């Protein structure tokens, strides 16, 4: 049975020029993402992960091929394809509450409803008591939780996450990854998650799509299935199959990115 | 008053002490540099007019009103034009290419270089003073606003777009607050320049204004009144800067924003 697709990328081609000549980022690239699915785009720097996200978000429209969101061609940005950036995307002149309320105010929601929604999402990301804090008063992990709350409150159909935890230390990263798992039990957007961290990809993904910086067209997909019960991320990382998948990914990377350092 | 503000008083107090002792020990003749207490007395007489020490006794308010109206008019013209052109130039490469070379060329002509042509165009009086102030104060506003607007991180604009903000909303909710510190720096510099160019505009033969008092007193040999006028202009410059920053701080507090002023 064909699953319900929210994002369809068909025969996508994308290239750009730099001083070394023409660089092909995508050549007849195809990808479908179904509703509720968390797809991790994994790959080394320069493989086009962030460019793909920019195109899906509607920031970059310079490509050929088809990019469909809920069956409609992607044209420009939309709060329904919300982006969580790596860092520094929150407005430092606004406090936590106003950062999260920003998108709702654009939708002309009344302040009473905004308050209910903002406080609710702050509760979900465990920041209810920080609503009047400014960004410089928050840690890196807290800022990313605010960034997550800012898009979750818009109830988007799809979340596009561009290495959102890449700037965090490993302890904070684990905590926020666990929060992500919990959040997915409450909100159900499809998620395209970009990372170059193999462990993170294996811990969070329903499906991993491995992109190459070297040979184009040779994409690999993995649907991680673990042996044990895996009630939390710690269990997953200790699972026997975890290292098998990791080896498979590294071998694929090694075989298809020979000219990369 | 906090400790840092006390530190700011040290240099003026030292200069005042050096001035006082230089005068007391006759190191500088009093017809060249009158004593600080003499200046204080003349200043009080200039404001209150109860001692008839000089021909300017009790005329402070007339001259102050004339000067402040010129400063405000010139500063306002410079601020409005500098802000409008600065933002347009900072956010549009095409507009920048169109006007920036011309403005940079104009900037190279010192303010005093405009005096002869201003006298021909506007004659002696209010208009010349306002023209000189507006022209000189325009550049710091334009340059700072243009640089601040150009430096607004693209990620803020992307975030706002992604949440559905229109171009006008992005301007007043993102570009404006993100560049506010540059705007304030430009306005503060412009205000200082306005007071400096007030004197230039008023020494050309107008009958009222603090600059006119300086010029008139010099010709009458009242060096004490000249120095007193300088001190008053310095104090007014300091007060106006304090008020300008205070207005922004008040507005920022009123709106619950954190602009780092």
List the helices and strands and how they pair.
The complex is a heterodimer of chains A (261) and B (261).
Chain A: E1 5-18, E2 21-34, E3 38-42, H1 49-57, E4 64-69, E5 72-73, E6 81-84, H2 96-106, H3 111-124, H4 140-152, E7 158-162, H5 170-186, E8 190-195, H6 198-204, E9 207-210, E10 220-222, H7 233-238, H8 240-256
Parallel strand pairs in A: 3-8, 3-9, 6-7, 7-8
Antiparallel strand pairs in A: 1-2, 1-4, 4-5, 9-10
Helix pairs in contact in A: 2-3, 2-4, 3-4
Chain B: H1 3-24, H2 36-48, H3 60-91, H4 93-107, H5 115-122, H6 126-150, H7 154-162, H8 167-178, H9 180-202, H10 210-219, H11 223-254
Describe this structure as you would to a colleague.
The complex is a heterodimer of chains A (261) and B (261). Chain A is α/β, with parallel strands linked by helices and 261 residues long. Chain A has a single domain (5-256), classed as P-loop containing nucleotide triphosphate hydrolases (Rossmann fold, 3-Layer(aba) Sandwich). Chain A has helices at 49-57, 96-106, 111-124, 140-152, 170-186, 198-204, 233-238, 240-256; strands at 5-18, 21-34, 38-42, 64-69, 72-73, 81-84, 158-162, 190-195, 207-210, 220-222. In chain A, a hairpin with a 2-residue loop joins strand 4 (64-69) and strand 5 (72-73). The longest helix of chain A has 17 residues, at 170-186. Chain B is mainly alpha-helical. Chain B has a single domain (70-254), classed as Orthogonal Bundle (MetI-like fold), CATH 1.10.3720. Chain B has eleven helices and no strands. Chain B has helices spanning 3-24, 36-48, 60-91, 93-107, 115-122, 126-150, 154-162, 167-178, 180-202, 210-219, 223-254. Chain B is globular, with a radius of gyration of 22 Å. Classes of the chains: A alpha/beta (261), B mainly alpha (261). At the A-B interface, strand 6 and helix 2 of A face helix 7 and helix 8 of B.
């Amino acid at each position: 049975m064909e699953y319900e697709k929210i994002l369809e990328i068909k025969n996508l081609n994308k290239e750009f020029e730099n001083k070394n000549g023409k660089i092909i980022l995508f050549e007849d690239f195809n990808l479908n993402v179904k509703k509720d699915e968390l797809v991790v785009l994994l790959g080394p720097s320069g493989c086009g992960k962030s460019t793909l996200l920019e195109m899906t978000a509607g920031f970059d429209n310079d490509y050929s091929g088809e990019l469909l969101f809920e069956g409609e061609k992607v044209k420009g940005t939309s709060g329904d394809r919300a982006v969580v950036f790596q860092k520094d995307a929150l407005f430092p002149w606004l406090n936590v509450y106003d950062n999260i309320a920003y998108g709702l105010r654009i939708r002309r929601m009344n302040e009473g409803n905004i308050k209910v929604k903002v406080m609710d999402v702050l509760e979900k990301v465990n920041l209810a008591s920080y609503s009047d804090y400014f960004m410089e008063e928050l840690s890196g992990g807290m800022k990313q939780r605010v960034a997550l709350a800012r898009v979750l409150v818009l109830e988007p159909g799809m979340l596009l996450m561009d290495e959102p935890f890449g700037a965090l230390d490993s302890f904070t990263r684990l905590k926020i990854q666990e929060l992500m798992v919990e959040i997915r039990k409450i909100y159900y957007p499809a998620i395209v998650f970009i990372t170059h961290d193999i462990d993170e990809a294996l811990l969070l993904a329903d499906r991993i799509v491995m992109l190459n910086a070297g040979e184009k067209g040779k994409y690999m997909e993995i649907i991680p299935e673990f042996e044990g019960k895996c009630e939390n991320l710690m269990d997953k990382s200790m699972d026997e199959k975890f290292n098998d998948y990791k080896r498979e990914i590294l071998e694929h990377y090694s075989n298809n990115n020979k000219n990369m350092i | 008053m906090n400790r840092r503000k006390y530190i700011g008083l040290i240099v003026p107090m030292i200069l005042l002490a050096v001035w006082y002792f230089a005068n007391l020990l006759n190191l500088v003749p009093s017809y060249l540099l009158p004593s600080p207490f003499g200046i204080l007395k003349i200043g009080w007489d200039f404001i209150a007019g109860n001692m008839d020490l000089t021909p300017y006794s009790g005329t402070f308010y007339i001259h102050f009103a004339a000067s402040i109206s010129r400063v405000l008019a010139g500063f306002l013209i410079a601020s409005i034009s500098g802000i409008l052109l600065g933002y347009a130039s900072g956010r549009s490469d095409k507009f920048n290419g169109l006007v920036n070379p011309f403005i940079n060329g104009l900037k190279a002509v010192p303010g005093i270089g405009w005096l002869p042509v201003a006298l021909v165009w506007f004659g002696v009086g209010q208009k010349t003073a306002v023209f000189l102030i507006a022209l000189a104060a325009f550049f710091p506003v334009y340059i700072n606003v243009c640089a601040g607007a150009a430096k607004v991180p693209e990620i803020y604009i992307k975030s706002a777009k992604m949440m559905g903000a229109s171009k006008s909303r992005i301007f007043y909710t993102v570009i404006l607050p993100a560049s506010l510190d540059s705007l304030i720096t430009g306005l503060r510099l412009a205000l200082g320049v306005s007071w400096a160019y007030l004197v230039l505009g008023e020494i050309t033969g107008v009958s009222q204004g603090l600059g006119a008092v300086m010029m008139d007193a010099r010709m009458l040999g009242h060096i004490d009144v000249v120095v007193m006028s300088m001190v008053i202009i310095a104090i007014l410059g300091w007060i106006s800067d304090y008020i300008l920053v205070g207005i922004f701080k008040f507005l920022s507090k009123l709106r619950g924003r954190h602009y780092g002023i």
